[in-house]
Amino acid sequence: MAHDIDIMALDSRGNGVFSSDKSPLSITEYAGALLEQIEEGDNCIIGLSMGGMIAIEMARLSPKKVSKVVIINTSAANLSPWYRRFSIYAVIDAYRTRNRDNGVDWSEATALKLSSEHLGTSPAMAKKWSKLRQQNRVRLHNAVRQLCACAYFKCCDRLQQPIFVFSGVLDKLVSPECSQSIAEHYRCQLVEFDNAGHDISLDNPAALIAQLKKALL
């Protein structure tokens, strides 16, 4: 059965087409800026990691524009301790074991190693990410400001909309326990992906699409 679903890839302030903008220090400001890019209607917001925090806040701010929320490997300061929300040891290990091929940006190679269990050292993917970085490079001060915004994010007590929580069991950057805490907080089902790390779309895209269809339709 065919379904008509329009997909919009939204860039937050300080990223993508807005990479020259200064990144806010609060998730609420990111959410407000993204809400300006969409119209009222049946919009499902899907967010990974920091994007999941923004998705939750978008839903809180505007029930008329957000009908559903899907969050992937996300955390909140009021539900999980900092050492589960961000593993500095995983960052160090990813930097140490990153792809070092010529033409590969060290920061993108590190990010890829952190994000994917199966493509973490892929030369092709590392070069693709490095090429994308040349087009819209995230500035260092913006990256720091984004980390600060994430560190202080607290999810609201309740949402009017349905929320779906996805978790990669092999995630080394953000503990899967953070997703469990959010699912318990909102009393919703936790969908776990056994063969995926932080970025499920890289590690198990077919399974992710199947679960997204269940959430969206």
Automatic annotation (TrEMBL):
Keyword ATP-binding found: no
Name assigned to this protein: Hydrolase, alpha/beta fold family
Presence of keyword Heme: no
UniProt keyword list: Hydrolase
Gene3D superfamilies assigned to the protein according to its UniProt record, in alphabetical order: alpha/beta hydrolase
Domain AB hydrolase-1 as annotated: residue spans: 2-210
MF-aspect GO terms: hydrolase activity
One Pfam family, short name: Abhydrolase_6
PANTHER family to which the protein is assigned, alphabetical: HYDROLASE ALPHA/BETA FOLD FAMILY (PTHR43194), PIMELOYL-[ACYL-CARRIER PROTEIN] METHYL ESTER ESTERASE (PTHR43194:SF5)
